[in-house]
Amino acid sequence: MTGPRAWWNLIREPLLSVLGAFVVGALLMAASGHNPISAYMAMIQSSLVGSGLTSTLGRATPIIGLGLAAAIAFRSGFFNLGGEGQFVLGGLAAALVCLHAPLPGSLLIPTSFVAAALVSGLWAWLGADWEFRFGVPLLISTLLMNYPARLLASYLVSKPLRDVASGLPQSHAIPESAYLPGAISGRFHLGLVLVVIAVMAVSWLFLRTVVGYRMRMTGLNARFARYGGIDVGRLGRGVMFASGALAGSIGAIQILGVHFRFIDGALTKPFYAWTGLMVALLARSRPVGVLVGGFFFAAVQTGGFGMERAVEVPRELSQVLQALIILFVAVGAQRPVRDLEEGEAHV
Amino acid sequence: MIQWVYFDRRPALFMTEGAKNNPPPALELRDILKKFGRVVANDHVDLCVEPGEIRALVGENGAGKTTLMRVAYGLYRPDAGEIRVGGARQEFASPVDAIATGLGMVHQHFMLFPDLTVAENVVYGAEPSRFGVVDRSLAASQIEQLSRLHGLDVDPNVLIRDLSVGARQRVEILKALYRRARVLILDEPTAVLAPRERDGLFAVLEDLAEDGTAIVFITHKLPEVMRLAERATVMRDGSVVGTVTVADSSPEEISRMMIGRDLPAPPTRERKAAGGPLLVVEGVSVDAPSGRRVVHEVSLEVDTGEIVGIAGAAGNGQSELIETLMGFRPTAAGKISVAGQPVETLSIANRREAGLAWLPDDRDGLGLALEASITNNLMMGSEARPPLSNGRRSSRRGCEEFASVRAHEYRIKSSDLRAPALSLSGGNRQKVLIARELPLAKRVLLAEQPTRGLDFLSAADVHRRLLDHRAEGHAVLLVSSELSEILELSDRILVMFEGRVVGRLGSAEATEERLGLLMAGAVAQATP
Questions:
Q1: Do A220 and B369 touch (CB under 8 A)?
Q2: What is the Cα–Cα distance from B282 to A229, expressed in whole angstroms?
């Protein structure tokens, strides 16, 4: 169980899942009269080369960020399904700060991030608080809290905050001083760097800190954690705050780095939060796995567009492919643990 | 015997004729090889059990007894070797096949539906039916007849969840008999029983053997072997060391065979002058989440350098009491103090801070995170202190050194402390718990069933460590359903029955008989 062996054990399942999904995808394409090889070639071309890579990275940024936010909670045993709402509220908070806060330009960016993290962190914290105070399952509360968050943002940008002149349900544009560095040049902006730093930081948190140890133990066996003296209620509230705050910050990154205003539906339509959730599951909540997986899913999605353009394979197929990967992972997920039990328990 | 038509599973009538001279063995295992990965659990094992024989299958944990019986019962497929039942060679794809040829097994963990009745559980999979509908009254009367015949006293119409552990075991035996088992395998059947229930079980087994049923009895308790079995087959490290006739052997000989050398001398317990009380419990009551009171006004004290034992059959409130002392459950009433400091309102962390530590009964579910590394399991409770961390940042070196020192000190057998705790045997898992909790027990250790499921050597090691801990001036509150353990370790003994303390004895006046009577609630009224 050391070195390369342990690594192999960790990546074997996701790798096989992905391979299996691509094989089944190829069969589906062949069955519907497309050439799978040229389709996959087009997919690679349009997602990993040149401007394709740029758009993959742009798409990967929120997916990785939201996957990481989910992973923080999942690995600690708390099922935060509210990533989408937290993401939207964070974006909204960041846009509001940039539009209305009487601050000099240089302070707009940090203030937006703090506001986004606070609002979304508290929103997620609420779910944890209800679970520990009233026994409302986190799974349900966080899932349902997506609706008020999303609809509130939708209402605000279509009524009171609407940029009427633009004719669209969106807020006014934020001042240029609030743009993330690199944002104007295209889709490669500071956000990606921030997300990669966040991945490293969370990885370090899990493996090198006392709190991270307590989070992992709570995730593996909450009763054990409680028995050992960990205040699971307090930890859970903190974890949910952190998870929400990260999701909110990703919202700020999208507003300050991509859209430059709050556009209704821009954060929710691409299903970033849900893709991130899938990535977190696929990566078993390992931060570096989320990084790799998030990039991979982004590539599959942008590659889907390319495939459609080049060989007229419907883009829905790339979504079918994603679903297949999750299915294959679900099948494989329990395997290693079970093998271990079989081998040792009765000898 | 003859009036009993439904269950004529006996070859007894045939045996009175010619076959009597040379009946084929009831169960014969030849040259069984069973591997799990690279681990050889059964290394070419032979076993032959005659009809009407009670055979003890003994050995330390991990000797391969349970594996061998699971092979016989069709739960595992052997990698080589053959199984014969009543002389005919058999291949079992699953226990269903094994049951069909007349095998029955009572597992350590019962396989019953708690929300079904006794009758429903017994007939499950072999229901008597009329016009395609399960005939419940016939099932109930069959079971009643069967249980009367064998002295297996249970009411067929009661739900399993309402039965005691001993009664559940009787249901398991009935299940096997209902399916006309000619070979009955029992895996450590006495581990969960109070002494009186154990005596009842032995009577049933003797009666069944009289009727011709072959019985294989897995255990590592020698007094039971000496009392019940005709012959004992000893296993060690996956192989059979030998089979002895119990009457011609001795516990010493069998234990030597089991462990490969002489038994360590039992630990000596010097009486130390006790200091002040470290743990004081006054009138503590505990309510289950349903609101039912499960512990009634228990008061006790444990002094410095003292082990106080709480005897009682499982499920009489001991676990709830211990969980409450630790802060795992709320206290409904009463006071708890550790070294004079009231703790009943403190959090678990603060109670640990006050010097309480706990070896829980539920090791795998509560005491360990099985999927976490051994190191991570050893760290719990010390993780925020040097040398493991500076309170915030963990030191990898510090954690690894800490774990390897503990592992060495407590002889945890593992090649890699980064491996999950799941990879350890039961004995080694308990060592991990002890290695973690003893150093944390600055004042009081709550030790719940500390040797359940452990073999001789592991159990002796645990006992020695508990006595050492006591000798260092700590207090130990020991909960055990194992009377010999209570008697061997305790300075004073309390007996719990139905949530109350029904007896308090000094170690000198306590005997197994007296405790057994108290545990069964016999004199509950006399000493409230």
A1: yes
A2: 24
